[in-house]
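[Meeting: bench + compute handoff]

Bench side (C.D.) handed over the final construct sequence. Compute side (W.E.) agreed to return the predicted structure before the next meeting so the bench team could plan truncations. Sequence as handed over:
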Amino acid sequence: MAWLAVAIALIATGVLLVQNYAWLPAALGDTDDATRMVMVRELLAGRGWWDQHWMRFQPPVGVYMHWSRLLDGAIALVNLIFRTGLDNRSAEIATRVFWPCFCMIPAIWATLSASRRLAIDVGKPDRAQSAVIAAAALMIVNLGLFSGQFRPGRVDHHNVQIALSLVAMAGAMEPSHRRRAALIAGFASGLGLAIGLEALFFQVAVAGMVAFRFVRDPSARRWVQTYMLAMAATMTLSHAIQTPPDRWLVSACDAMAINLVGAVLAGAGTLCLLMQATKTRDSRFRAAAALGAGMAASLVYVLVQPACLNGPFAEVDPRIRSFWLDHVSEVANLPTLFRRNAEQAIFEVATAAAGALGLVVLMFNARRPPGFALMTAVLLLALSVAVGMMAVRMSVYAGWFATPIIAVAATSLARRYERDLGIAFAALGGALVLTPAGWSGVSTLIYNAAPNLIALASPKPKSANQSHKARAKDPPDYCFNAFPYRALATAPRGLTVSEIDLGPFVLAHTPSSSLSGPYHRLSIGIMAARSVLTAKPDLALQRIRRLGVTYILACPLHANHADRSGLDRDALQRLLDRGEAPSWLQPMTAPHSSVMIYRVAAPANTQ
């Protein structure tokens, strides 16, 4: 399965590389990819490992970046290896291609392993297990091509967290006599939480299923202890390595900090101690031990930082929610997503439907009562669908968690009708169609074709112009490309003001700093930049002088973004979007450039 995982990752990466190679040298991906590469570049340039206070964002205050330094170091190490045979620019491109492919390998291996274990759990014979792996492999190829988190150039933390969540799931499905699986699962859970908290729900679910295993099976005590100790040790060591010593005791809601480390230590320690005391007692005492460990962890987490009960954005300045955070597509819920991007919303619904259908088939064809593998798979799928409906960036997890269930279900149908070759091939084709990617592809095709079918049947069809507007694709976001920033790259360093999303690219492509960026810890800079861009020219100039701003950037392509909503027609942002810059802004780029860069004129000499 390891070699099969490598082969699938190489195939998917090869296809995606052909599709995306043109923009790899020209763009760094989205805002998070750009910021990650800035952090890696600075680390390679000699920045201290624990020097995580960034002054190029919202100077002169700066910001302490809460992103994982372990991930920065891993990507920097890959870059250094490529630098032994390539120049710096080529080595960076090679790193951006290699990293998501490298992360895809454990994700694929874990999914294949989970599929095989699920087949064993529901009573499939050895011959069927090979068929399950084959079906899962075909589905993963489809999923790998469809999942944007593993495309070349994606160096943000999401692909690592997906891979570690899948490894934790696969390890938790293994039987109790395989303590190495518990060790791997505990390590994956601990490291996943050290990288970021987006997958917190899934890692907690895995830990909960591990504890539940001891409730059902007292002989699994050592297996459960191995997982808990591995997770606690990994988190503690990761926290000590990636966090500056003066911040070891600082709590946080948006990253692994002392409150989460303390909670895991309390929960794991309590459970290990209670398991020793209850190992010979009945299931009620073991259930009480598991429940007590969960309560101990929750109590520590709440007492250290009560605000975190309100989620990772609990400490965000409420002023930046209305015009920015509430409109970020990654954190949009399902109804909002349907209004903004119906195709992506269909993927979310299709994932839930495909997984549910596969589960129904599996339950009717299971040869034994549900075991831990099936319960773990169902719990993680249900949780991923629920979380994906609340935040779209989490919807990709459901596709991966659904794959083992659908693969085993499709193989069960094929085995039932194996004497009929046509039906067997139909079942295999159904496995491909039932992948979230395949199902959403069919659903999207129907969704896009529906207006045309209605138009043919209607005596008064919509005009061609109206239909085009309803289905038109967004143009490429050239504001994220490197080329528009060349004029600023050769200019003297200065402080820039722009809409929120341009900040990371200023840091990535120029020596200048940015007052704002798309990160919730930059609320001071975001509000300062907002005060400039929403003001009329005379007031905006006064604020610019007070802040010491040197350059103003504008992206007219984003004129319809949510941060423009409600702005006065004469607001500086509106004027820049229309190309009507005030006289005190000197253009540094050609008219109608994708990113317009202006130099603030020096104040007139006063006698």
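W.E. noted at the follow-up: The two ends are 79 Å apart (CA to CA). C.D. will use this when planning the next construct.
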